[in-house]
Amino acid sequence: MTTPQTDLALPVGDADLARRLQERMARVEESLAGHVVGRSQFVTDAARHLLEAGGKRFRPLLVLLAAEAGEDPGNVDVEVAACVVEITHLGSLYHDDVMDEADLRRGADSANARYDNLVAILTGDFLFARSSELTSRLGRDAVRIQAETFTRLVEGQILETVPPGPGEDPLEHYLEVVAGKTGSLIATSARYGARFSHAPAEVEEALAAYGEIVGSAFQLSDDILDVASESGESGKTPGTDLREGVPTLPVLMALASGDPADARLHELLRGDLSADGPHAEALALLRAHPAMEQARRYVVARADEAKALLTVLPEGPVRAALEAFADVVAVRST
User: Fold this and answer.
1) Contact 144, 50 (CB under 8 A)
2) Do 210 and 330 fall within a single domain?
3) Which CDD domains does the annotation name (predicted)?
């Protein structure tokens, strides 16, 4: 059984709002533990493995916060929707770890390391199926929204494995991957909260757009931190994506530079950086490159774009919390 979390992953300055969200998150946490139970103990243990490893629970919390924009934030469907998005996210993590051949996830053994790839893949499928069962409780429109979201999420995962097509901008290709893999489910989290608390349609659409932008920007800020942070600051070894040859925002912006002085950096970025020497050289050159500041400005601009969508909400604690999260996304990359 997971331990109900009381800390909030989003910055909430209003004490009453924070208390309501903490109480509802505790119920969601308890429900999550029940929803991943299978018919056999083995399935239950495998499905609970990453759930019990923790995580910020950002997506279900965003459902609950967005619900505060409607007239019925305590609607039971809001909490069901919060479980739907978190279980969908958990399922994607099992598949991600197989694709990435990861050994660790949230400080614990990944499911593929603890069991094997087959069990990890099927456990992810089990969680996706369970999220679909829960979605069916929310009505036909929710089933459609969930299906469309899942399509985008999986397509983003597929696109991540293939290079850009002929004539396609590598940066645009990457941003499409991020929007699908990360932005789509966070957008749906905000949409569900607004929808099932009976917020006006224009509020629902604005919050869904806000969620997609902030979700994508959050991933892009991780890209910057992978290069800029020192050991221990970001929770992973600096330059991990760089060493593994994963294209990220600052890398792609550096590669787009036409400055002849960047020839050595381009050579390194297009080569094998698994060895310590080339990796250290590439990391140092990239940290000093204007692409880092360009990437930071891009993330800040996206956060500002997200905040501008919140003008549909009255000024108050809910809007302030959503604005604060967009600011956190921007600040963590600077």
Assistant:
1) no
2) yes
3) Trans_IPPS_HT (cd00685)
What CATH number did the domain enclosing 27 receive?
A: 1.10.600.10
> Two tokens at 286?
């990239």
pLDDT at 213: 97
Q: What are phi and psi of 162, to 5 degrees?
A: -120, 145
Task: For residue 323, give its domain range.
Answer: 200-334
Q: What is the CA radius of gyration of the chain?
A: 20
Do 169 and 230 fall into the same domain?
Answer: no
Cα diameter, the chain = 62
Whether 149 is covered by a domain: the verdict is: yes
Cα 307 from Cα 148, distance rounded (Å) = 25
**101 backbone dihedrals φ, ψ, rounded to 5°:** 55, 40
Say whether 109 sits in a helix, a strand or coil: strand
- Yes or no: say if 197 and 73 are a contact pair by the CB < 8 Å rule: yes
Bridge partners, 108 (sequence order): 105
Structural domain tally of the chain? Answer: 2
| Collapsed DSSP state (helix, strand, coil) of residue 108 | strand
Whole-number Å distance between alpha carbons of 106 and 98: 15
Please give the angle made by the CA atoms of 221, 226 and 228, to the nearest 5 degrees: 90
As a whole number of angstroms, the distance between CA 333 and CA 228 comes to 9
pTM, two decimal places: 0.90
288 DSSP assignment: T
Give mean pLDDT in consecutive 10-residue pieces for the chain, a chain of 334 residues.
56 93 95 93 85 84 97 97 96 79 57 74 92 97 97 93 91 96 96 98 98 95 89 62 90 96 96 95 96 96 97 97 92 70
Q: Is 201 exposed, middle or buried (0-12, 13-18, 19+ CB in 10 A)?
A: exposed
Distance of CA 39 to the CA centre of its chain: 30
